[in-house]
Design goal:
Layout lengths: L17 H13 L2 H5 L5 H21 L4 H14 L2 H14 L4 H13 L3 H18 L2 H17 L8
Helix pairs in contact: 1-3, 3-4, 4-5, 5-6, 6-7, 7-8
Length: 162
């Protein structure tokens, strides 16, 4: 008998990662208890949920093209499917509407890293670090420093450039 099939997960919800939380929550709730409890992931359900999220975010964007949060969440859904070129496009749209978002710069940097575009990855991670420094978010500053260190090792030709 399964009493509680959902594992307990703690989320650090801030205004910047609220969208990430709701996407993860949607993906988590869409999974059936037996597959989560058994330690397995139902990949087809996972992909289907991500595709539904893309469809949903595109519908929201069609109604309100100035909604940067929907572009950001669209990028996250593309990340789920491994469609990094589309992910970059969605983040760039979100960034054009909200250029001071450190989280968008951070995610865009990660997407560029997936595409092996080191110079752009470094640039956006440095922008994220600068914005997090302005906000005095020390945890995020350390995270960007770790990523930059990794990038400088992965892309040695771009070590000192901004």
């Amino acid at each position: 008998m399964i009493q509680d099939c959902k594992p307990h997960i703690l989320f650090d919800i801030t205004s910047e990662n609220k969208g990430v939380f709701f996407i993860l929550l949607g993906l988590f709730l869409s999974w059936g208890c037996p597959s989560v409890y058994g330690g397995e992931t139902d990949f087809q359900t996972y992909r289907k949920t991500a595709q539904q999220e893309i469809f949903r975010q595109k519908a929201i964007i069609q109604q309100d093209p100035m909604d940067f949060q929907s572009y950001f969440e669209l990028g996250l859904a593309y990340l789920t499917l491994g469609k990094h070129k589309e992910e970059v496009q969605a983040y760039k749209e979100a960034l054009s509407l909200n250029p001071k978002s450190a989280l968008i710069h951070y995610n865009l940097s990660i997407a560029y890293d997936h595409l092996k575009e080191g110079e752009k990855a470094i640039h956006h991670m440095q922008m994220a670090q600068h914005l997090y420094t302005q906000k005095r978010n020390h945890r995020k500053i350390r995270s960007t420093q770790r990523q930059l260190k990794r990038y400088f090792l992965s892309y040695p030709g771009f070590g000192g450039q901004k």
